[in-house]
Write a structure and sequence with these properties.
Length: 201
């Protein structure tokens, strides 16, 4: 930090302290932390936090580290970069990521494009009973219940988890490419039009 004024040195040193604090907080937590919690603990404003995250990631890049801080919705997590996958695969073999069936991918697609959604909505999209697949994905931590619909029977509402976003390298479901035929509203409209035309779906 040569040739810096006292004020510039103080600002740079304060940023470095917050970068170090961010790193140890995310390391110790070992899972995604809401941005609001990080702002409270560092402390930092919502405007400052992305700059602190960026500074830590630049430090990792400069050192050739396999680590990075990734944003997941309104949270941040310390995780490995994609280029470390081969190395970790050699260490953990098939346990690095869960093996998912075609049916599981279908349910995850249905939920991620329509969340929160009920089992009935998932089954309309897939066209088959999905109870066992949904239960399995909940056990794997890729789906979770997020409240109940105010209808008779109070059906559970399902959403994808932070683990799902991390597994598929997404910051949020907003990063998913547009797929109208996976949308519940689109399918409902198609079914209604087919029914009006006397066509069974």
């Amino acid at each position: 930090m040569e040739n810096l004024t006292d004020t510039e040195y103080t600002v740079a040193n304060a940023l470095n302290d917050k970068v170090n604090a961010l790193e140890i907080l995310l390391f110790a937590k070992a899972e995604a932390m809401p941005a609001s919690n990080l702002c409270l603990l560092l402390p930092a404003t919502e405007t400052e936090l992305p700059n602190i995250v960026d500074a830590l990631n630049k430090r990792y890049q400069a050192s050739g580290s396999y680590l990075e801080v990734r944003r997941l919705d309104n949270s941040y997590i310390l995780t490995n970069q994609a280029r470390s996958k081969a190395l970790l695969s050699a260490l953990f073999a098939d346990n690095l990521n869960p093996r998912l069936s075609k049916q599981a991918y279908e349910v995850l697609a249905a939920v991620s494009y329509n969340q929160p959604c009920t089992r009935a909505q998932i089954e309309l999209i897939r066209g088959v009973n999905s109870d066992s697949v949904i239960n399995n994905l909940v056990e794997l931590g890729l789906l979770e219940k997020n409240g109940f619909l105010e209808l008779p029977g109070h059906p559970a509402l399902y959403v994808v988890t932070v683990k799902f976003l991390r597994l598929f390298g997404l910051s949020s479901t907003a990063d998913l490419p547009a797929q109208p035929l996976l949308m519940y509203d689109s399918l409902r409209q198609l079914n209604e039009e087919a029914s009006a035309a006397g066509i069974e779906t």
